[in-house]
């Protein structure tokens, strides 16, 4: 198996065709990683989110990372790690950005169900007020593994 660095263009192409990533945040030297749906555009990931631990932690420490991958087999995969900065999009001051995030996320299949379903089960609430946030990309690296002989 050969592992090579990906170009920035290849990294961004992966982000553009992906919709699930692992979001990492931390507080008091404790990492916390959760799967999330996102929509990527230019230098931002947009996310619809329930309010809970990850939001509280990112408010306290906006330095985050996101890992995205495509795994065809043990020896054929791509993986991109993005370091970025959390920015919440509350109303009314970010109404335009929220509308934009909603538009981007609506293109994705069942984008809202995972974000809201989990919290509804947990709280038993009928109505939930989600929040939107975005991650501004600071840097990224990508690795591509290729099976030898291919
Ligand atoms: C494929 C997929 C896509 C998802 N997309 C979104 C999305 O777009 N937006 C969104 O808000 N959420 C999404 N979720 C749910 C997300 O992973 C979190 O479970 C959820 O957001 C609650 O996170 P929280 O930090 O607010 O946890 P809280 O509700 O505050 O709960 C905190 C506690 O629950 C545990 N916990 C929380 N989430 C998980 C988990 N996923 N697995 C195991 N333990 C957990 C933590 O360890 C912690 O102790 C998605 C989940 C999956 C599997």
Could you describe the 3D structure shown?
The mean pLDDT is 90. The protein starts with a strand and ends with a strand. Strands 1, 2, 3, 4, 5, 6, 7 and 8 form an eight-stranded antiparallel beta sheet that branches. The protein has one domain: Pnp Oxidase, Chain A. It is built from four helices and eight strands. It has helices at 8-17, 53-60, 95-106, 113-123, and strands at 2-5, 20-27, 30-37, 39-41, 44-49, 63-73, 76-88, 131-146. The longest helix has 12 residues, at 95-106. Helices cover 27% and strands 46% of the residues. It is an alpha+beta fold and 150 residues long. It binds flavin-adenine dinucleotide (FAD). Flavin-adenine dinucleotide is lined by residues 20, 34-37, 47-50, 52-54, 114-115, 118.
Mean of residue pLDDT values? 90
The CATH homology group name:
Electron Transport, Fmn-binding Protein, Chain A
> What's the architecture, going by CATH?
Roll
**What's the β-strand tally?**
8
Instruction: Name the beta content range.
Output: over 45%
Query: What ranges have pLDDT less than 50 throughout 5 or more consecutive residues?
Result: none
Order of helices and strands: EHEEEEHEEHHE
Number of domains: 1
The first-level CATH class is given as Mainly Beta
Could you give a short account of the major beta sheet? 8 strands, antiparallel
First-last Cα distance = 10 Å
| CATH topology group | Pnp Oxidase, Chain A
Write out the distinct hetero groups bound to the structure: flavin-adenine dinucleotide
The helix/strand class is alpha+beta
The rounded Rg comes to 16 Å
Helical region count?
A: 4
Level of helix content?
A: 25-40%
- Overall geometry comes to globular
